[in-house]
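User: Some background: our group keeps a shared notebook of sequences we're curious about, and every so often someone picks one and asks for a predicted structure to add to the entry. Today it's my turn. The entry only has the sequence so far, pasted here. Could you supply the structure so I can complete it?
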Amino acid sequence: MYAIVEMAGQQFKVAKDQKVYVHRLQGEVGSKVTFDNVLLLDEKGNVTIGAPAIEGASVTAQILSHLKGDKVIVFKKKRRKGYIKKNGHRQFLSEILIESIAVSGSTKAAPKATKAASKKSAKADDLKKIEGAGPKAAEALVNAGLDTFAKVAKADPTKLSEILTEASSRLSHLVTTTWPKQAGLAAEGKWDELKELQDRLDGGIEK
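Assistant: Of course. Here's the predicted structure to add to the notebook entry:
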């Protein structure tokens, strides 16, 4: 029996007792995580395809370790422009062990989660007002539970960078050093001071 399931923004074909490397998960080592976005199930040749997900199906796994992937070098050059840029990136990963694949389960929790998400989003601040935080970065912060300026203000810049990197490698280059300071000013309604700060920023770094 195997399943195709979406985990941390990626799709994997998994089976029981299989080890998989996925984008960094927020759980502690040894804890269990459940993925309910199962797209396909194959049970002894009987294939079930979701539309887009299979209702009630889930995959349960245990987090074995947190680690970093191999370094990837990104080199950019423009001919006759004098433009050369070299960056290195190591993706944050989690090693998980697939413990079980459930064909059916409780479906009553889904509406509650939807209502909770609606209430949460209704109270959320517009995090795009933070310099450097575009729609994708703001969405990643909200998904991580940092949906207000006050919560971002209390967060560590390193933790913010980890959240963005886990959400997408395309967000890993964002500099979050001043995000808590910006969020703190926004939470207190000091918009003029926030604008003055953002005018001094260069690529997310205060001049």
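Suggested note for the entry: The longest strand covers residues 58-78. The mean pLDDT is 86.
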